[in-house]
Amino acid sequence: MTSDAAPARPDATDEVVDLCRDLLRIDTTNTGDNDTSAGERRAAEYVAEKLAEVGVDAEIHESAPGRANVVARIPGTEPGRDALLVHGHLDVVPADPDEWSVHPFSGEIRDGYLWGRGAIDMKDFDAMVLAVVRGWQRTGVRPRRDVVLAFTADEEAGSDYGAHFLTQRHRDLFDGCTEAIGEVGGFSYSVDEQRRLYLIETAEKGIDWLRLHAKGRPGHGSMVHDDNAVTALAEAVARIGRHRFPVVMTDTVRAFLAEVSDVLGIEIDPDDPETAIAKLGPIANIIGATVRNTANPTRLAAGYKDNVIPGRATATIDCRSLPGQSEELERQLRELVGPDIAIEYVQRQPALETTFDGDLVVRMSEALRAEDPGAHPVPYMLSGGTDAKAFSQLGIRCFGFAPLRLPADLNFSALFHGIDERVPLDGLQFGVRVLDRFLRTC
Ligand SMILES: [Zn+2]
């Protein structure tokens, strides 16, 4: 299809709400335990059925009983071109109904929002993709390049049963894919009535989860004792927890701040980017974490009796490294903990970073501006990790682009894994229009 093709038929924008609602009503809580994460299979069957209804063959790939992924390929009209991967996960993090205003799996519509666990992370995007593709199939639209759809399991617990399983065991499904879109990006941040930044993810920090091991001499809690594993570990954990790693400006953050400075009309001191970032309000906690490596202690374990000094103590530290900084972070941590504490990596996945240029970026930006004349697309780095970690292992250039126009007063970042997660209905429909335009033209 050419770039002057008509935007989405109204039925895709209508249908997206029902599709998202159906998905929200399937409890796909990922507990990290295969025995209790069965909902993914039902969600996968739902997606495959919705695609089959309009003539798209989708295959379900199970990595373990109940852990199901769906993959389909929509052939493009220009077969010589590289394929685009569009991926979204189907699992969600747990939600406690007692804390919510509505039941988290009821898919309730209230005050212009669709409520439920997964409403923005990320069944909204799954539903948008389904709505666009179903609209195409009904009206005979085909994309220019092959579009591979992947709906994955297990993103919320490390992707071993989802994206990593697919890329390691079913690599051929992604033949020809050179670029990808998925979470977390394409959402709006209001500058004022007229202007909105749309944050497109071009980078994400690395995951460097590690365990500290302290050893000491076991003994009786009543006696003089100068080799206590708990004391040694506690000192190391406190040093890490209080440490602030130096600011390291990456290309992505520099580009983001340049755009922000331009649009907001503020000076940003390159030696002190955090003062400017603090002014960004609700997104400051995402952006603020992308100017330095971070390390947060999350777990402690030691001892088995009140009056026994244990011989060992362990702590888990959730570290996140900037692109190219993982080794440096390891060096910094070794210095902080000292020679007597052992460091073991329990998870180490590299950071990603791509440039904010090329045809795909132009198409994203055009699609956003066509639907929102006040749109200012900007690249940004996500402080967390996504399925892009797995897909980038195949050499795919990954972007976070799940377009969503948000009301100015909505604290979007707080809704991720948060209580009363919800998506604005008009934002969902906006997303369908942008995605449809983008996918037709890219
Ligand atoms: Zn997510």
Shape: globular
Widest β-sheet, arrangement of strands: 1-2-6-3-7-18
Bound molecule types: zinc ion
Approximate helicity band: 25-40%
Helix- and strand-based class?
alpha+beta
Task: Determine the N-to-C terminus distance.
Answer: 9 Å
Measured on Cα atoms, how large is the radius of gyration? 23 Å
Summed over residues and divided by their number, the pLDDT gives a mean of 94
Number of strands: 19
Number of helices, where a helix is a run of at least 4 consecutive DSSP H or I residues? 13
Low-pLDDT segments: none
Strand content: 15-25%
List the helices and strands and how they pair.
Layout: H1 10-25, H2 39-52, E1 58-64, E2 67-74, E3 83-89, E4 109-110, E5 113-115, H3 123-139, E6 147-152, H4 163-169, E7 177-182, E8 187-190, E9 196-204, E10 206-215, E11 219-220, H5 229-242, H6 251-264, H7 273-278, H8 284-287, E12 294-302, E13 308-309, E14 312-321, H9 326-337, E15 342-349, E16 352-353, H10 359-371, E17 375-382, H11 388-391, E18 397-400, H12 412-415, E19 422-424, H13 425-441
Parallel strand pairs: 3-6, 3-7, 7-18, 9-17
Antiparallel strand pairs: 1-2, 2-6, 4-5, 5-19, 8-9, 9-16, 10-14, 10-15, 11-13, 12-14
Helix pairs in contact: 1-3, 1-13, 3-13, 10-13
Gist of the model:
By secondary structure, this protein is an alpha+beta fold. It is built from 13 helices and 19 strands.
Description:
With 442 residues, the protein is an alpha+beta fold. It is built from 13 helices and 19 strands. The protein has helices at 10-25, 39-52, 123-139, 163-169, 229-242, 251-264, 273-278, 284-287, 326-337, 359-371, 388-391, 412-415, 425-441, and strands at 58-64, 67-74, 83-89, 109-110, 113-115, 147-152, 177-182, 187-190, 196-204, 206-215, 219-220, 294-302, 308-309, 312-321, 342-349, 352-353, 375-382, 397-400, 422-424. The strands form five sheets. A six-stranded mixed sheet has the order 1-2-6-3-7-18, with helices on both faces. Strands 8, 9, 16 and 17 form a four-stranded mixed sheet that branches. Strands 12-14-10-15 form a four-stranded antiparallel sheet, with helices on one face. The radius of gyration is 23 Å and the shape is globular. It starts with 9 loop residues before the first helix and ends with a helix. Bound molecules: zinc ion. Zinc ion is lined by residues 89, 121-122, 155, 183.
